[in-house]
Specification:
The protein has helices at about 5-75, 80-105, 115-145, 150-245, 250-265, 280-285, 300-305, 305-320, 365-370, 370-375, 380-425, 435-460, 465-470, 470-485, 505-525, 570-580, and strands at about 265-270, 275-280, 325-330, 340-350, 355-365, 490-495, 530-535, 540-550, 585-590, 595-600. It folds into 4 domains: about 15-220, Four Helix Bundle (Hemerythrin (Met), subunit A) (Up-down Bundle); about 265-365, Beta-Lactamase (2-Layer Sandwich), CATH 3.30.450; about 370-450; about 465-600, Histidine kinase-like ATPase, C-terminal domain (Heat Shock Protein 90), CATH 3.30.565. The protein is about 65% helix and about 10% strand. Helix 3 (about 115-145) packs antiparallel against helix 4. The strands form 2 sheets. It has a 5-stranded antiparallel sheet with strand order 2-1-5-4-3. It has a 5-stranded mixed sheet with strand order 6-7-8-10-9, with helices on one face. The protein is elongated, with a radius of gyration of 40 Å. It is α+β, with helices and mostly antiparallel strands. The two termini are about 55 Å apart.
């Protein structure tokens, strides 16, 4: 009777996960698309500024060329003619290069040009003047270099240069003005694009609320009601089982023996459908004297060193990995002792949506040894024993249901309450009163932001992809930036020694969790406004320091061990530090802030 609510809860959870992924994906798509489009416009604007700069330089060079030609025409010193001629030739070369760049771009400088038809037409009009100036300048230089006495030819070339240079400047001004006009048009287009993106984002938020969050809240509420009904039924069944057990006093000897065995041999493990261990309970590993083992080892290798028993276990798993299995089989410990197990194999999907198998085992070796006592029991007592076994299994499942109810309650009291408030606030919007409607729409936006913030906060404790892909420093950078956004506090990371080395994955995840816990403590308890995370290293040691300006605390009152009032955060930090062979130092005084220093060896 507990199976239906649990499966329904799993189905609801999967649907909610898909809906949240769609919702967040839509927002992410909107942001990425807007950034790409805006970046394209900014790149165009940057290219336009370079065009205007080159065009301005083109005007300057044409004027400089004209002045240098006039200076050469009036000079009377033969010694000055070569240097003036070289200067004119250099200016003319630069002028020609700039003219070519404005029309065709320059691949060597990664400068591409896409002139509009208007600008292209203007260049076609200006090119004859440009060519006349170039040709007349070259003729003029030739005449002056040859000390020609033909003053009429020189004057004609000067007139040609001056006339065409003036016409060139007029046309060049028109081209610059056209560049400026086109740049302004692009800015106006960018403004319209930004407005469209803003409207689209608002429509996406409203659509997500109407299509995703509101229906999801209703479905979640229905699932929670079903789970609570299942819990009530389970409680009633437990009470009935207690009454029934009291009426079966004649089986007390058997029940005492069985209860004693059950207390000592309840075993639990999780394996993949191929039989590889993903998790194993402490009693399980202690029973088979496997305190240290490869987490990727096969369960059959752990349960027996004998090949025939290993093949039997592998066959049972392979044949029943989809439907599950209940039964008994014999195993052999590493010391050669026979161990009989009563096994319940249950398929399930983990939080990562991966198929796994749960093994709930009972060590029934002693029960096998006392089988002659069981055979003397009546059919009624035997059935009662089986019933008690089911009651115990049901209690295990009820504990799982209680944990699911707790998680569902957290969701209901947190995000669920905010979604309900969002629903009622949306229903109260009166479109006939624009002023009140605007105030409520502002509240709607704030509440929607809080909901998104709540979802991001709930998922932020997952291991970030930066840790796996890039290492500890990028992951801590992302952590500080995200927490700074979520809390409004000034949280920064300073990579003092530019550390970029990759470490063992277990070392990196423990470093990340310790630093995360230290930052969270500074946020929750220290009432700090500034938190600085400093990373530095030497040849042999990596050091991470979390320093805050909070209220601090008295180290003499620091709990050495956790109790009912807390203290688990420091304990977890110390355990993680020991695991990676590091050292943890905490320095703090009242009203003077707290400094947490973590040192680990690099060799």
């Amino acid at each position: 009777m507990t199976g239906t609510p649990r499966s329904l809860d799993q189905e609801t959870f999967n649907r909610l996960r898909r809906l949240y992924i769609i919702a967040l994906g839509a927002i992410a798509f909107s942001l990425i698309a807007s950034q790409l489009l805006i970046r394209k416009y900014l790149n165009d604007q940057e290219n336009d500024s370079r065009l205007v700069n080159v065009a301005g330089r083109q005007r300057m060079l044409s004027q400089k060329l004209n002045k240098e030609v006039l200076l050469l025409s009036v000079t009377k010193s033969p010694e000055a003619i070569p240097s003036l001629t070289d200067s004119i030739q250099y200016t003319m070369d630069r002028w020609v290069t700039a003219h070519q760049i404005l029309q065709y771009g320059d691949e060597s400088q990664d400068f591409s040009v896409e002139n509009s038809p208007e600008v292209t037409q203007m260049f076609e009009e200006i090119n004859p003047y440009f060519k006349q100036v170039i040709e007349a300048t070259q003729n003029f230089i030739f005449l002056k270099s040859a000390n020609s006495a033909d003053s009429t030819a020189i004057a004609a070339q000067l007139k040609t240069i001056n006339t065409n240079a003036n016409s060139f400047l007029v046309k060049m001004d028109e081209i610059v003005n056209q560049y400026d006009s086109e740049a302004k048009a692009k800015v106006e287009s960018l403004k319209r694009l930004e407005l469209l993106i803003t409207v689209f984002t608002l429509l996406v938020l409203v659509g997500e609320f109407l299509i995703i969050f509101w229906p999801s809240a209703k479905a979640m509420k229905a699932s929670i009601h079903e789970l609570m009904d299942a819990e009530e039924k389970a409680i009633r069944m437990a009470k009935n089982a207690d009454i029934l057990s009291q009426s079966k006093e004649k089986s007390v000897r058997e029940l005492q023996a069985l209860s004693k065995a059950m207390d000592q041999i309840l075993l639990f493990a999780r394996i993949t459908p191929e039989g590889y261990i993903t998790h194993i309970g402490e009693r399980f590993s202690r029973l088979y004297k496997a305190q240290k083992f490869n987490i990727n080892a096969k369960i059959s290798d752990l349960l027996s060193p004998l090949e025939n028993e290993q093949l039997t276990i592998d066959r049972i798993i392979a044949e029943n990995k989809k439907a599950g299995w209940e039964g008994e089989f014999k195993t052999t410990s590493q010391t050669g002792e026979d161990i009989w197990l009563d096994v319940s194999m249950i398929p399930f999907n983990s939080a990562e949506d991966k198929s796994e198998l749960i093994l709930i085992c009972l060590d029934i070796t002693k029960r096998k040894e006392f089988m002659h006592q069981v055979e003397q029991l009546t059919k009624e007592s035997f059935e009662e024993k089986m019933h008690q076994q089911k009651v115990i299994s049901r209690q295990i499942i009820e504990n799982q249901e209680n944990e699911q109810n707790r998680i569902a309650k957290d969701i209901h009291d947190g995000i669920g309450q905010m979604l309900t408030g969002l629903k009622y606030l949306l229903e109260s919007v009166d479109t006939t009163d624009p002023e009140k409607a605007e105030v409520k729409i502002i509240k709607l936006k704030e509440l929607t932001s809080n909901i998104i913030k709540g979802v991001r906060t709930a998922t932020f404790n997952l291991t970030p992809p930066e840790l796996k892909d890039y290492g500890i420093v990028p992951a801590l950078t992302e952590l500080t930036q995200e927490l700074s956004k979520l809390t409004g506090k000034d949280i920064v990371l300073f990579n003092k020694s530019e550390f970029s080395q990759r470490l063992d994955s277990l070392v990196e995840i423990n470093l990340y969790r310790i630093t995360q816990e230290a930052i969270n403590n500074a946020i929750k308890y220290a009432e700090s406004s500034h938190i600085i995370v400093t990373v530095s290293h030497s040849q042999n040691i990596l050091s991470i320091i979390v320093d805050d300006n909070g209220k601090g605390f008295d180290k003499s009152k620091l709990k050495s061990k956790p109790d009912e009032e807390g203290g688990m955060g420091l304990t977890f930090m110390q355990e993680r530090v020991k695991y990676i062979n590091g050292r943890l130092f905490i320095n703090s005084s009242p009203n003077e802030g707290t400094k947490v220093t973590l040192n680990i060896p690099l060799t």
